[in-house]
Amino acid sequence: MSQDLEEQIRQQFLEEAEEYLKNIESSLLGMANQPLTRERLEAIRRACHSLKGGAGLMNYPTLSELSHQLEDCFNFLQPGYVCDSFATEQLLLETIDCLKYCVSEYRQGVETIDPDWLTQVAQPLFQQVQEELGYIDSEPSLLTETVPEDVHLLMFQTEVEGCLQRLEAVLNSEDQTCLREEFTLVAQELGGLGEMLQLPEFQSLCLAIEQALDRATADNVPKIAELALQQWRYAQSLVFNQQFSLIPTNLPQIDSQLLIREGPLIT
Asked: Angle CA(120)–CA(154)–CA(162) in degrees, nearest 5?
């Protein structure tokens, strides 16, 4: 993959990161005055999780680790939580400012976040937030600019899993008017990641899914969506086992759907 394309993908992620942070920030506002609903809490968790995974994938480890720490805090909280004071809400909003600072630095071409800022600003703030929420982190902080050892596994542990869970929710919902659009967008997104990580088989699978959705009649879209999820899940398991060459590159024929459900979708 060309350096220009890689940089384009990274910049696109940073734009998405800004949207994640806006969503988290809007969900945090008012925590000191009203209980944290399940819907708001889940929205914050999903945004933190996506931000963590995407930042790790794009080799922005400080942003990934700070997002991870924030996600852990909200995984600790339960629906109905109310901040003890407005000051606690402000502290949480300040952690978002820290994440915004990282995104801004990366957008300006900075590859390594200032270590003095990490030790003097970010880390003390996140520790204070954890103390305010009553959360105790048993894992040591990883706030260093190091590249993940296995970017393939990281992608499938975070980015792909998050996408597939979202698609499963769409597929199982009563309103499926946006089913084709949602699956097509994810196929394009994951295809781009497959290209970036030099997984041509996975990239081909995403393209085949996108093409099948484009050609499908409205009645066939749910069937193809279900097949797509099964193929993506199967590809995911192959990546976990580092069997990259066995990743399927297309969808089975719809006429064979019932037989396919009995076992792995190998093509």
From this structure: 100
